[in-house]
Amino acid sequence: MALYEDKAMIIGATRSNQVETLASSGWQESVSHLREIAAHTCISVHNGVLTIGGYLYDGPQMGNTKNVYLLREGQWSHVGALIHPNNRGTSIHFGEFFLVFGGYAPNYVT
Fold first, then answer.
1. InterPro entries under this entry (predicted)?
2. Residues whose CB is less than 8 angstroms from the CB of residue 72 and which lie 6 or more positions away in sequence, other chains included
3. Which residues are within 8 A (CB) of 46 and not within 5 positions of it... i.e. 6 or more apart?
């Protein structure tokens, strides 16, 4: 879960690319993630949300991933990758950096 445009946002689930935001009227569908993703970590950044690592359920890269995606201005884009695949980790945003800790993959700090 992360904050996007001052609203709580949930991203993906097992075999899903669905994204929802919490409005005063309840949960509403938002722009879908580029991939069917779960077990990722996500953080709010200036004017956007990052999903980091996770497990992909679609395409030739099915499995643990090191991909980093950014939602900004209502569009998702692939913006980079960790050194090693990671899922079920946790992350923090600190100044211009973000740190990813632990997870199901080997215990790398990326």
1. Kelch-typ_b-propeller
2. 47, 48
3. none
pLDDT tens readout for residues 88-99: 989 998 888 888
* Beta strand residue intervals within 1-110, DSSP E: 2-4, 7-13, 16-23, 26-29, 37-38, 41-45, 48-52, 55-56, 63-64, 67-72, 75-81, 90-94, 97-101
Find residue 93's DSSP bridge partners.
98
Q: List residues bridging with 77 in a β-sheet.
A: 70
Q: Is the pTM of this model over 0.70?
A: yes
